[in-house]
Amino acid sequence: MRKLLGFFAAFAAVAFMSCSGGAGGAATPTEVAEQSMKCIQNKDYKGYVDLINFPETMKESEVKTQKEMYVNMMENKMKESVEKAGGIKEFKAAGEENVTDTTATVKMNVTYGNDSTAVQNVDCVKTKDGSWKLKSNK
């Protein structure tokens, strides 16, 4: 379970299009955190990666390469961690912390299919257009 928690913490740190394909960003950090968990729950790793804020200084080709890398990595790592725990059964936002004008951390209570639970921190950043995305470590 410790590996699972570490993995989520790492992805929250590297972390708007919704999983249903909508364009734009989330209005609040909680919305983007919930959307990211929904993507993981539905095994929509591309949708999750679309929620990550990549630096504007990156070329389009670099962003595309990074997104492909993240999707492949998530597919492999989720099989080792989340799917092994029975997938995400349910999740609920437990509040926002460390909120500034441009950053926030959302605490998510997560219950897995095997009934284990965890609290995940999802780091978010406000983009120049005013939407919220997952914080990238780049």
What does this protein structure show overall?
The protein is of the alpha+beta class and 138 residues long. 38% of the residues lie in helices and 24% in strands. The chain is built from 4 helices and 4 strands. The protein has a 4-stranded antiparallel sheet with strand order 1-2-3-4. A hairpin with a 5-residue loop joins β1 (88-97) and β2. The longest helix is centred in the middle third of the chain and has 21 residues, at 60-80. Residues 4-23 have low confidence and may be disordered.
Give the SSE map.
Layout: H1 2-14, H2 29-41, H3 45-50, H4 60-80, E1 88-97, E2 103-112, E3 117-126, E4 132-134
Task: Give keywords.
138 residues; alpha+beta; four-stranded antiparallel beta sheet; 4 strands
Unreliable runs, pLDDT <50, ≥5 residues? Answer: 4-23
Give a quick account of the main beta sheet: strands, pairing sense, barrel closure: 4 strands, antiparallel
Placed side by side, the strands forming the largest sheet appear as 1-2-3-4
- Succession of helices and strands: HHHHEEEE
Task: Give a summary of the structure in a few sentences.
The protein has 4 helices and 4 strands, in the order H-H-H-H-E-E-E-E. The protein is an alpha+beta fold and 138 residues long. The chain has a 4-stranded antiparallel β-sheet.
